[in-house]
Amino acid sequence: MSQCNYYPRADLHCHSNASDGELTPTELVTRAANRQIEVLALTDHDTIAGYGEASSAAAAATPALTLIPGVELSCSWHGQEIHIVGLNFDVNHRSILDLLQKQHERREDRAHRIAQALEKLGLESVLDKVRAIAGGDTITRPHFAELLIREGLVASHETAFKKYLRKGKRGYVTPHWGSIADAVDAIQTSGGIAVLAHPNDYRLSHKWTEKLISEFAECGGKALEVAQCRQTPNQRKRLAELAIQHGLLASQGSDFHFVDGWVDLGKGLHLPDGVSPVWLEWNENR
Ligand code: AMP
Ligand code: MN
Ligand code: MN
Ligand code: MN
To answer: At residue 64, does pLDDT exceed 80?
Structure first.
């Protein structure tokens, strides 16, 4: 197969229960293989704890599936939370491991502060309960949303965010994430590719979205997430143009968290003509 025509069924953004996804890494890989995904990256929030299990599942998967190391790092940028996906880095490299350790501490610190804020509403032992819900080491806001449902304060995750967990609400505390430049640097020093995730999900104006993409490219970031499950054809086309304009590679990912009928692994993911897919870069380097 000629390299420029190489177009695998790829999903390079999804979550397992190592962060805020529903499926175990094994269940996720099995679902991906059943959906004929050929290249998968598990990109849990600020952790690679699911990677080992996912690798074993991928090695045994039928049809065959290639698992690419991945992660989704939370960053702060002008008071906004921005997500940088890292792909195909060395999972044993000090640079990425040091940053993941820092992200863990930042998540723990934020979880303590969210728990205190929710206890002011009359809830008890919030952190212990949320830790039990999270199961693993990584506590995310959806775990707090689950607690708010169990305690009878809200009926859905959506309402939990809307009433308590979003910026400006009583359960929101300012996170102390690092910069985009630090995330890009840790991923790429570890041999990977930094991807600016879901550029249309930050509720930024066109002008600020372009400023974000241009600063990301200036600090060395290599790729833009162009194709997602939930976007209009025009949004995808526009992101492809921006990737080309800023000299960025293009990535595609569902951001799958749980089975809901709308978002699924690999669903509707295809890159517009004219962009350079991220996998061309790592195929060349193999
Ligand atoms: P965190 O990284 O801990 O701040 O959690 C962010 C995660 O919360 C996102 O990756 C989504 O999976 C989830 N999320 C964000 N906003 C909402 C919402 N309005 N309703 C449900 N889940 C949400
Ligand atoms: Mn999430
Ligand atoms: Mn995200
Ligand atoms: Mn995600």
So the answer is: yes
